[in-house]
Amino acid sequence: MAKPGSGVPSKIRESTRFYPYFKDCIGAIDGTHIPAIVRGHNVSNYRNRHGNISQNVLAACNFDLEFMYVLSGWEGLAHDSKVLSDALSRRNGLKVPQGHGRDPENENELFNLRHASLRNVIERIFGILKSRFTIFKSAPPFLFNTQEELMVACAALHNFLRKECRSDEFPIEPTDESSSSSSLSIPVDEEDNFEQIYQTQDQQREDANTWRASIASAMWRDAI
Asked: Under the phi-then-psi rule, with left for phi > 0, alpha for psi from -120 to 50, and beta for the rest, what region is 86?
């Protein structure tokens, strides 16, 4: 996997739309669903909300369209917050460094516009991956452990090709990223198990909202 750099990414540094507001941002993170073949009594756990059997894959990438982290193998039913919690808690898991249409009519609209423009890199890299490795168009006919490893291996191959060939000049097929869980709800029978997680998430969400509001205010003040 690609390693995060120590400096401000050029995509941010060279744009007044993004710098200095996102100077501490090193990449983007999101999840996607990959078709899977699962045997046994646990198959229902891999049936996502669209009724398809899949594995939920979490990935982080930099602004050069290179994967920095991939966690594959989670059940399609698993909520994104649960997958992220697992990625952060693993010994060699995801490490997050501590950071330092129409014209937008207010600070929130301006922030949302620029933030969306910056984070679409994660959607692009998923599109490139699925277009390049067409085996992910359907469930690979292997044992599930092999399907997990295949996802990580293809991410590594993508990074190699990105560095050595820069051969991403082919149509990127649209992906239905809505298949990733986007709400914050979890099954009722799991609510007790996640009470402590939600308390922590509530505090993190409050801190993030405060931080976002401060960035949005500075961005809007500089724009007007």
From this structure: alpha
Task: Label residue 166 by pLDDT band (50, 70, 90).
Answer: low
CA 21 to chain centre: 20
CB of 71 closer than 8 Å to CB of 89: no
> How far apart are the C-alpha atoms of 168 and 126, rounded to whole Å?
12
Mind listing the pLDDT tens digit for each residue in 32-67? Answer: 999 999 988 888 999 998 999 999 999 999 999 999
CB distance 132 to 169 below 8 Å: no
Q: What are phi and psi of 24, to 5 degrees?
A: -95, 5
Residue 216 has φ and ψ, to the nearest 5°, of -60, -40
10 Å CB burial of residue 129 (0-12, 13-18, 19+) is buried
Cα gap 115→2, rounded to integer Å:
22
Gap between the Cα atoms of 122 and 131, Å rounded: 14
Q: What Å distances lie between residue 74 and 36, 87, 88, CA to CA?
A: 11, 11, 14
Give me the residue label for tokens 């423009």: 117
